[in-house]
Amino acid sequence: QVQLVESGGGLVQAGASLRLSCAASGRTVSNYVMGWFRQAPGKEREFVSAITRNADSTDYADSVKGRFTISRNNAKNTVFLEMNSLKPEDTAVYYCFASLWYGRQYYQGERTNWGQGTQVTVSS
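Structure (tokenized):
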């Protein structure tokens, strides 16, 4: 088990940037594929981005590709999501996850660890 705590959310205007952080404890984050999902009010949780253990591969949802960048610092047990050119439709609670496997089909499985989420609100 790994415990995850997100931070960095907030209220911003459209076009602004935010950087989310996810701090892991309990087990070293280098053992896990890490990433982010988000959930907007009244909608299902959706995949945002993921990064492999050694950061040699990343994956992004089409809706954020070119605007969001995922990175990780295994020495500091932290994963980041740099969000640029934010849009009102990016408004959601953003959840960090840790998965043993790389691939969108695995991320919502029983063995995935989740953080509590951080709210991102983008005003128009």
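The first strand starts at residue 3 and ends at 7. Residues 36 and 96 are 5 Å apart (CA to CA).
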